[in-house]
Amino acid sequence: MYDSNFDMQRLMFHPGEVAHWLEHGQSRGPLYTEMALSTRCNCRCVFCGVDYLVNKTHDDIETADAKRIIDELHGLGNRAVMFAGHGESLLHTDALEIISHASAKMSTSVTTNGYPLDDAKLPLIDGLKWIRFSINGCDAANYAAVHRVPEAAFDQVMTNLERAVERKRSRKLGVVIGVQLVLLDENAGELVDFARRLKAVGVDYFSVKPFSQHPLSECQLKPDYAAQAHLEDALEALQDESFKVIYRARSIDRVNSEKRYEKCHGTHFISFVSANGNVCECNVFDGDPRFLTGNAREESLGAIWRGPRRQAVLDFIDHDLDIAKECRDICRMDECNCYLDRLKNPMDHDDFI
User: 172: which DSSP letter?
Assistant: First the structure.
């Protein structure tokens, strides 16, 4: 069973680690890591938040380095890793070997555009908790326009999705298979029909989330979400016990809204490892030297996590970073930060549980 509330924070399920941070001002290690196996991507999506990084270099992490980093994360107590990052991780030649290695040690997941998930790599889903296909066009022409690829790519992605669902069914796997779409003016028109197709394919869920402007991105979009509000009821009408629609209305409502906290504390519990080995305190600012804590090809993650360079970055985030001006409006750690901020700044009546 999985929780389909994608807008909630889950730090509350790790009270020991949170209590340690509250007492000591430091966590013992990351609970969750995002890891990129490649900076390459076969798509050029119109909404890409990291277009300033993707395909600028062609880094694929060395397989031995990736497996060693995973082992070090396990030693630090890391609970989960998502293979995603600023590129398409499944383009890595040894994606199956690396991801399977991780799945034997901790909870694992993959976010992918789905195109590279061919028959040779498909077994990597066997050990995953979940895999999420990022499909942001509702038919071949729409997909080509949004992802900026040939129309034939859509059919290949849908075929790969169908094969993943069939493998799950035939082998009775526990992996949750979902599809996520960034809602844009360009793809809203055929959204309900696309959801019907995904239901017929047999995916577990279809998630629709808002576009979030990345502060460093070259793309500048302003979707009209007020005009798309009617989609929520139409999509949720398709739900049944085996197919969930996760229309992220709460996130949509927060687009361009002010932060509900003054400081980012969430980075104490997560890590981001890029395909070039760089370890960054926040994935939004990958490539920004202010957030770089070290390189995992050159030193151990334990040394990086406890080292003076990372402490300097944490101090910068705590004292100098203006999150209202510099940060993404709907970042990965937004809900976690609300939770941690309340713990750091309790209110008068909190004892009345």
Answer: T
- What is the separation, in whole angstroms, between the first and last Cα of the chain? 28
- State which amino acid sits at residue 337: N
Query: Tokens 């003054």 correspond to what residue?
Result: 262
CA-CA distance, 338 to 267, in Å (whole number)? 13
Q: Determine what percent of the chain falls in helix, strand and coil, rounding each to the nearest 5.
A: 40, 15, 45
Computed on alpha carbons and rounded to an integer, the radius of gyration of the chain in Å comes to 20
Number of other CB atoms surrounding residue 343 within 10 Å: 15
Structural tokens at position 286: 């990958």
Q: Parallel, antiparallel, or unpaired for β 270-273 and 278-280?
A: antiparallel
Q: Are 164 and 112 in contact (CB under 8 A)?
A: no
Q: In terms of DSSP H, where are the helices of 25-151?
A: 63-75, 95-103, 140-147
Q: Which residues of the chain form beta strands (DSSP E)?
A: 32-35, 80-83, 107-112, 130-134, 176-183, 205-210, 244-247, 270-273, 278-280, 292-295
- Token pair 């992996």 is found at 175
Structure tokens at 58: 């062609």
Query: What residue type is assigned to position 78 of the chain?
Result: N
| Cα 334 from Cα 197, distance rounded (Å) | 32
CA atoms of 171 and 153, how far apart (whole Å)? 27
pLDDT per residue as tens, the chain (353 positions): 788 888 889 999 999 999 999 999 999 999 999 999 998 998 888 888 777 776 677 789 999 999 999 999 999 999 999 999 788 999 999 999 999 999 999 999 999 999 999 999 999 999 999 999 999 999 999 999 999 999 999 999 999 999 999 999 999 999 999 999 999 999 999 999 999 999 999 999 999 998 888 777 787 888 888 888 899 999 999 999 999 999 998 888 887 778 889 999 999 999 999 999 999 999 888 889 999 999 999 999 999 999 999 999 999 999 999 998 888 878 889 999 999 999 999 999 999 98
